[in-house]
Write a structure and sequence with these properties.
With 402 residues, the chain is α/β, with parallel strands linked by helices. Helices cover 56% and strands 7% of the residues. The protein has 18 helices and six strands. α1 runs antiparallel to α8 and α3 runs antiparallel to α12. The longest helix has 26 residues. This is DUF116 domain-containing protein.
Amino acid sequence: MHILTYSLCDGGASSDEFYRRVAELTDAFLLYAKEMLLPHAERLRQLAERTGAEPPRSVEEYAFDLLAAGVLWRVYGTHALGLTPARGRLLRRLAGVRTASPRLKPAADRLRATWGSRWLLEQGGPAPQGASPAVPASPTPAQWEKLLLWLEASGDFSQEAGRLRLAAGCLTKAAPRAFRAAAEAAVEAAAWLTHAGARLLGGYTRQVAAFRAGLTERSARREDAILRNRSEVEYHLNWLGAELMNRAYRGAFEAAGKRAVLLPVCLRAHTGTACAAVRSGQGHTCLRCDASCRVASVMELGAAEGVEVILISHESDAFSHTLISRLLRENTSIVGVACTLNLVSGGLRAKAAGLAAQCVILDYCGCGQHWDDTGGFPTDLSLHRLQSILRSDPSSPTPRPE
């Protein structure tokens, strides 16, 4: 197994230590936020409730919104300021087309590959450790709007952009000094995560810089160029966000009558016709043709725990109207198994759909669609982590490794 960007095992046989460190980083963030972010997050929460912008959320979720805003500004602020409104609107429209129309998606992706990376990253690409060169210390309302357009135009941050657009809309209703103070606090929090994340989690992302450095000019002209170019601090942000959401949504997850596990096909030991899985409803059903296949192991665990296991070929299948309607109708909570850079967006999509969710992170990436240019190799996950989530531990808001 070749490590492309990240590995939760960091050379070991288990990812238990990784989950312990993520919990430690999350606890540290909550302590930091209590002093530096919660006043701004509480103002956001109150403004959202007063205006009816969305159902109630915890103040910690708004604190994470501010942290995410700061990280994305530090990483992509220069690119956002360099994107013209006309190009941004065109790319945003193409991103909408690929989501709304499977028939037009290939054509939209070709256009995005031709124009997107050049227009979105023409300032030179993300700087090391996620800080754009010469980016202003904190965004003004107009600059925040430019960042939102850039995020929407990229097609990679639609969920995050929605959260930040709501935050900006609320903050602009407050006094100008309140917006400025919140923006400054967000950027300072991002700087804190850059250092704290590198200290606690840097060992798990040590290959990210080498992977990004090895991207060729040809591979930069791909529809997924921004995904492949993501910086280390964005990996750490997603891990922190996943842990926070697991804690925040744990009660709703446990309250549901049934549970299901959504697995990506990159866990399969075999691909194409060599895999015996058959299409079934909204996903695939594993026939356990190979006992060494990780999907077969999860199927066995699911059978033992009385949990449905659904093999998903693409993220769009996981959030199809048919599947979501069935899960909601049957009062089913989900455990989503996902690659690192899909954690926050996937959690936000599940929340928006009304699903009570927890997540388990793939131990490393290896799919040929986005990461491995030689065709891909099977990924893996921690069965111990999955089992601890399915076997609810009432003494802790999120399962911890033993």
